[in-house]
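okkk here we go again. third time trying to get the pyridoxal-5'-phosphate bound version out, last two times i messed up the smiles copy paste (missing a bracket lol). double checked this time i swear
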Amino acid sequence: MKVLWNEKIVEESEVKIDLEDRGYQFGDGIYEVIRIYDGYLYMEKEHLDRLWVSAEKIRMTLPFTKEELSQRLHRLANEVGLENARIYFQVTRGTAKPRLHNFPDPKEVQPVLMADIQPASRPSSKQNIGIRAGFVEDKRWLHCDIKSISLLGNILALDEAQQKGYDEAVLVRDGYVTEASASNLWMVKDEVLYTHPDGNLVLPGIAKIKIRELVKTLGIELREERFTKEELLAADECFKTSSVAEIMPIIEIDDHKIGEGMPGSLTKKILTAYIETVNLSVQAHRDEK
Ligand SMILES: Cc1ncc(COP(=O)(O)O)c(C=O)c1O
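finally!!
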């Protein structure tokens, strides 16, 4: 499979990553994942904007413009030719020798970019039946707003939930629900939708941006307020969101049914609206060509 390696598109086997790349040694890097629908990179601008915000937060200067990065991603997408896929791209701070914690002089280090594309499809059957989750203490760091490649905290949480037989972890910090291991988390109570506000405790999701717009049009009240695990257990509906999984109902947490223990009506309404808006964007993109 072809991949992007800095400005070149090469076979994956041709990529050489230095052992002293700071991404490899420290997890010193950032990433993004964009869903490709029928060849269209959905919400690309928002993903690129977030990459730049993450870069600024880790004090890394990206050695290309958004336009240049976009062109490279499109070149790769055309080359690989997968119509329904996800594109993963990451930028590490680059190679600095010897290995030292302090940041190298930005003039002496070249950030390393890579991107690859893998097939992806809508997880329809899971979206129809929902998934089961377990509460896990959120022991991640206090920069969860940065889309960092250091994902050990998230991975450990997911593993803890999966070891107990659940599909996903619902993270809880100081009694309040933050998000899921790789998604934002939402609950519905008395027809009102709730999610944790943006800030340093959650990732500002791109699917979340779209859902804010959709619920406005659907006339659903949204409150970006934190809620406790007890409030979540007493909720009528729960779902998680991400660019790849879209809207995924959570029907049970710690073996307690949420609402009726099946995907709720507002969840289904929001999922339908999400799929429609994706289809409209894909159509508009096709009409432009
Ligand atoms: C921790 C975390 N929260 C939320 C999300 C959802 O973000 P997005 O909607 O941009 O995919 C992700 C996606 O990877 C994530 O890793």
